[in-house]
Design brief:
Structural class: alpha/beta
Helix content: 40-55%
Number of strands: 16
Strand content: 15-25%
Largest sheet: 7 strands, mixed
Shape: globular
Length: about 525
């Protein structure tokens, strides 16, 4: 989510998608699965349909004044035409569903909501009697479906409500930052031990000067309290958010306890502990499916009530946050992310700060970031893990076993087969065994980018088809707590991203696991 704030001028600029995600936690989760540009074939389709249009790629800019902030929402419609004395705003979407799958999909709520906003913008721009037309075209067989989207008189009120929530949160954050600057940072203990003052001063100076600091000190000196004191002092002055990352739960609890004691002694401080999604979820072992999880229903009033409770606590640990989420029937992982945007100290595992595929950094990009790494000598090995995602035919086979063998799911089955073929192709193109006993393979980056784009293209279609099925009728089994198809989506995305980042230091390799072809980078 990219919200562009200018606090001095009291302005906010954002895109239509940003606004949709502000109001819908499920849309935010779904966007994480499909966050890349439309595949090339879809772009060709757009160009072909736009050639004879009166207006194509029409930009809309809609401004609302909310609590003396000027909020401008930007969007770009594919086509605007005049038909029978009224303005038709058309959005063209492509899908890898064939005609049968497209007919079975029912509706595409995310696309319809986006188009409804363009229709609202057209009405505000005094276009004549605007209406929306959503055209969804199959890239498989050319089949298409068209939906009409009428002007929604309540949409402006919905936008204003979502923007007011964002503005109120921003104002509260600015007021909290001012309080932090003026209040000072209390030490967590009654006295400072020998050696701690030097650590406090070094940490504060490094953060203030924008420098790295490697701190080595004997066990028992009290490094946690000293470093936290120093970094929070500097961070309070420049409005930075502190990330304390460690691989050990015991160390996370120590940081929580230290921060809680600092708050008890008068330091204005808000903290969050981020657990991994699979550890945070408490739906009795059910697979985590962001597409249709009831805990991700768009219920902003419940979210705000939960955040009010967390503000009252200030320094909740992960169990307290999970309890608040349960009381309000919210996803604890999503609530932790919402709460993190209000926090000064984020306590998490290394991957939340450094893994290229984790989106938490983008969510918390509204403030400068200071990262404290506990036991930094462990980072190289973890970095190799992040840079070495694996994909194997076991994931493909699980998808093929779980998907119904019926026409509407044919594109998904076909794509899974193509992913399996790409894995097999890489294995066949092996270049021999290296000195470490690992077989090197040749993974075709262009082919994997194409597969990734196809997977992304099916993201919205998956959500549309999944919504037509009764609960638990599909994907009853899971792989590592994830929905079978979603697991394949994530595996293809991570594998392709690692290939794209790969340099001379990277090799592709093949191994065997449970008699399955398995490629990693």
């Amino acid at each position: 989510m990219t919200l562009r704030w200018d606090d001095a001028e009291r302005t906010l600029d954002l895109g239509v998608r940003d606004l949709l995600e502000l109001g819908d936690r499920r849309a935010r989760a779904a966007s994480a699965m499909s966050d890349r540009a439309r595949m090339r074939a879809g772009a060709e389709l757009h160009r072909a349909l736009q050639e004879d249009a009166e207006e194509s790629e029409v930009g809309f800019h809609h401004s609302l004044v909310v609590r003396e902030w000027t909020c401008t929402v930007h969007g770009r419609a594919d086509l605007v035409v005049e038909e029978a004395g009224r303005t038709v705003v058309e959005e063209i979407k492509s899908t890898l569903l064939d005609g049968d799958g497209l007919a079975a999909a029912g509706a595409f709520p995310a696309w319809e909501r986006q188009l409804a906003m363009y229709v609202c913008f057209a009405a505000a721009a005094r276009r004549t009697d605007p209406i929306g037309r959503l055209r969804v075209v199959s890239l498989v067989d050319g089949a298409e479906r068209i939906w009409s989207v009428a002007l929604d008189p309540g949409l402006e009120g919905w936008m204003r409500a979502r923007l007011e929530e964002a503005v109120l949160a921003r104002e509260e954050r600015l007021a909290w930052a001012a309080r932090r600057r003026s209040a000072g940072v209390a030490f967590a203990h009654d006295t400072v031990r020998d050696g701690q003052q030097g650590a406090i001063d070094a940490a504060e100076a490094a953060v203030s000067g924008g420098r790295h600091l490697l701190l080595v000190a004997p066990t028992g000196i009290g490094k946690t309290a000293a470093v936290l004191q120093g970094v929070l002092r500097a961070a309070a002055r420049n409005g930075a958010r502190v990330w304390w990352v460690t691989a050990r739960n015991t160390q996370q609890r120590l940081v929580e306890e230290t921060a809680r004691e600092m708050a008890r002694r008068g330091t204005p401080l808000r903290t969050v502990t981020i657990r991994a999604r699979e550890k945070a979820c408490r739906r009795d072992g059910e697979a985590c499916t962001p597409v249709d999880c009831p805990l991700l229903e768009p219920r902003p009033e419940a979210v705000e009530a939960a955040l009010d409770q967390l503000r009252a606590v200030g320094t909740p640990d992960a169990d307290v946050l999970a309890g608040v989420a349960a009381r309000h029937r919210l996803c604890p992982y999503a609530l932790a992310q919402d709460w993190a945007t209000r926090c000064d100290l984020v306590i998490a595992d290394y991957n939340h700060a450094f893994d290229p595929e984790v989106r938490l950094r983008a969510l918390l990009a509204d403030a400068p970031r200071v990262v404290v790494v506990e036991e930094a000598h462990q980072l190289p090995e973890r970095a190799m893990e992040w840079g070495s995602p694996a994909i194997d035919t076991g994931v493909v086979n699980a998808v093929l076993e779980g998907l119904p063998d019926e026409p509407r799911w044919r594109p998904f089955r076909a794509l899974a087969v193509r992913v399996g073929e790409a894995i097999a192709e890489a294995a066949l193109l092996s270049t021999g065994e290296g000195g470490d006993g690992v077989v090197r393979v040749e993974a075709n980056l262009r082919r994997w980018i194409g597969l990734r784009d196809e997977v992304d293209e099916l993201g919205v279609a998956f959500a549309a088809l999944r919504a037509t099925l009764p609960p638990d009728s599909l994907f009853s089994a899971s792989i590592e707590g994830a929905d079978r198809w979603i697991e394949l989506v994530r595996a293809v995305g991570r594998f392709t991203a690692a290939l794209a980042r790969a340099g001379e230091e990277t090799v592709d390799r093949k191994s065997t696991r449970l008699n399955s072809s398995h490629s990693s980078v």
